[in-house]
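Quick one, probably user error.
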């Protein structure tokens, strides 16, 4: 580990501070657009099927040039190349970071410790494909010989959010004769609701856990096994037909009683939140079929190639990462909204929360020194137009600056039928209107000109200058979904590189896990916990007395 200069001490950082304090003290998008007729065209980048307009940002050419200089100074592309080469850039876990190898073509060569990992990736993909085909065709039967009609993915975090999000996103491409459920929460209600109307004889559980030690997943999988055995007469050998595992930990999988032949492997160089295109995608592959899954991987690869090869000025993940840094570090923005105008992307922002906040929610740098600069933002959002009738008020007129991504598609999915498809223009009109209103607002003069009484003018004025990126694509296909995810993966990477943090560890989730284990006996048995703080002790006592009432 070598000490890298703090980003804030770099002249490129100071130059951005000066630029903000001087040229961009009160940036005005109306003026910026008026002064530059080519702005919309120039500040648009195309990657694969994605059309990305970043013209409604509080930037000019100088801002972009200064941000690029910061990226150069912090060697973002150097770290990018190291990641793609398989170097151990996850320094605190001493691991390579190679989710990009999961979508590499069969003939690629990517080495970890001198071994080309690509053949192993494709061997697992082939095994997944064969299995998915058998389930989809009905050839894979349950213990009683009935075909599988229900697939329940049990996993949490990166072993849940990706497949659950993508299943929703790609519903029109899924086998509609199969039922898919996703169980993550250790709250027994989650499993209960997932299986209460299912027939165990027709149900396949996919237990997804990189470590196979995650307490929520193991607890739910154990309960699911009991449910299954209770429904199938208690015959242990039924488990082999109804449980498969996705994991890096063969020993624990076998210990749980799952046949190693029914385990789909991945590797420690795949981070949990970057694992959805590994074996962790099996439930999705069963849902959409192997060919569509490979289209998804192609989509990821399109953006990987772009991130590797596109020049800095038109490199979309780099640009989006740098724009985030502009607001985070130079405007004190605390959060970032992701607002998909697609019902099918209802879980997309939840997925991005883990991707972004678990990656960049760090307060020490790669050398372990406390950071003196803001790192990852709070990521949040729900699909439009619902959010418009809930929290957009704050986006438009609140005191906080919240940069937002608006994501929409030119075409609704085919199966909607004419009448529902006709609603699509209205949906997208809302997306465009929001971007417009956020950027350009409505001046007091414009409000007055409408005859609004003077005492209401201030209330009905919109200051505008709320930055957005608009991402458009023709339709939400597997490939487009892969492109979108890779875009955000690499954006998060860029930000972590500039901030000099390890975006690939997650030590911040450990303490709560340890404390939960310690507190549990106090709840179940009333055990005394030495050193328990007074507040928690009193809460535990109250809980027990309410429970035993
Ligand atoms: O607790 C956080 C975390 O480790 C995530 O990073 C991960 O995606 C999730 O838990 C699930 O872990 P596993 O796949 O090992 O069960």
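Nope, works fine. Designed sequence:
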């Amino acid at each position: 580990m070598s000490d890298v200069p703090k980003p804030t001490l770099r002249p490129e950082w100071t130059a951005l501070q000066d630029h903000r304090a001087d040229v961009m003290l009160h940036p005005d998008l109306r003026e910026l657009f008026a002064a530059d007729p080519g702005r919309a065209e120039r500040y648009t980048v195309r990657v694969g099927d994605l059309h990305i307009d970043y013209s409604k940002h509080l930037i000019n050419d100088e801002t972009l040039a200064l941000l690029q200089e910061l990226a150069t100074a912090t060697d973002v592309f150097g770290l990018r190349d190291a990641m793609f080469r398989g170097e151990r850039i996850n320094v605190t876990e001493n691991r390579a970071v190679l989710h990009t190898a999961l979508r590499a073509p069969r003939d690629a060569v990517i080495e970890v410790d001198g071994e080309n990992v690509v053949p192993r990736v494709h061997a697992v993909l082939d095994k997944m494909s064969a299995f998915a085909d058998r389930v989809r065709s009905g050839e894979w039967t349950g213990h009683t010989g009935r075909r599988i009609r229900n697939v329940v993915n049990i996993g949490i975090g990166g072993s849940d959010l990706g497949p659950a999000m993508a299943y929703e996103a790609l519903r029109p491409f899924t086998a509609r004769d199969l039922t898919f459920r996703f169980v993550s929460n250790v709250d027994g209600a989650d499993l209960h609701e997932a299986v209460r109307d299912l027939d165990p004889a027709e149900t396949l559980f996919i237990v997804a856990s990189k470590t196979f030690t995650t307490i929520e997943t193991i607890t739910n999988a154990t309960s699911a096994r009991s449910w299954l055995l209770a429904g199938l007469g208690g015959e242990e050998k039924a488990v082999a037909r109804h449980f498969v595992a996705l994991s890096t930990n063969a020993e624990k999988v076998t210990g749980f009683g799952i046949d190693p032949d029914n385990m789909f492997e991945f590797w420690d160089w795949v981070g949990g939140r970057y694992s959805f295109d590994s074996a962790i995608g099996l439930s999705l592959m069963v849902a959409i079929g192997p060919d569509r899954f490979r289209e998804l991987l192609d989509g990821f690869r399109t953006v990987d190639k772009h991130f590797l090869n596109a020049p800095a000025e038109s490199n979309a993940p780099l640009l989006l990462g740098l724009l985030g840094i502009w607001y985070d570090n130079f405007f004190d923005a605390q959060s970032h909204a992701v607002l998909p105008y697609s019902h099918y992307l209802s879980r997309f922002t939840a997925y991005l929360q883990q991707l972004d906040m678990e990656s960049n929610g760090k307060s020490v740098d790669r050398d372990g020194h406390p950071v003196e600069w803001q790192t990852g933002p709070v990521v949040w959002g729900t699909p439009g137009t619902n959010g418009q009738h809930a929290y957009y008020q704050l986006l438009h007129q609140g005191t906080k600056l919240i940069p937002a991504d608006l994501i929409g598609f030119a075409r609704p999915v085919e199966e909607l039928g004419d009448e529902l498809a006709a609603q699509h223009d209205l949906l997208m009109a809302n997306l465009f209107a929001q971007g417009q209103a956020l950027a350009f607002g409505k001046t007091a003069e414009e409000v007055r000109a409408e005859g609004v009484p003077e005492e209401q003018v201030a209330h009905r004025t919109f200051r505008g200058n709320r930055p957005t990126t608009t991402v458009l694509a023709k339709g939400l296909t597997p490939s487009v979904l892969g492109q979108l995810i890779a875009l955000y993966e690499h954006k998060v990477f860029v930000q972590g590189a500039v901030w000099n943090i390890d975006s690939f560890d997650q030590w911040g989730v450990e303490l709560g896990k340890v404390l939960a284990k310690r507190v549990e006996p106090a709840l179940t048995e009333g055990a005394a916990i030495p050193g328990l703080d007074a507040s928690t002790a009193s809460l535990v006592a109250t809980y027990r007395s309410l429970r035993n009432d």
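The mean pLDDT is 97.
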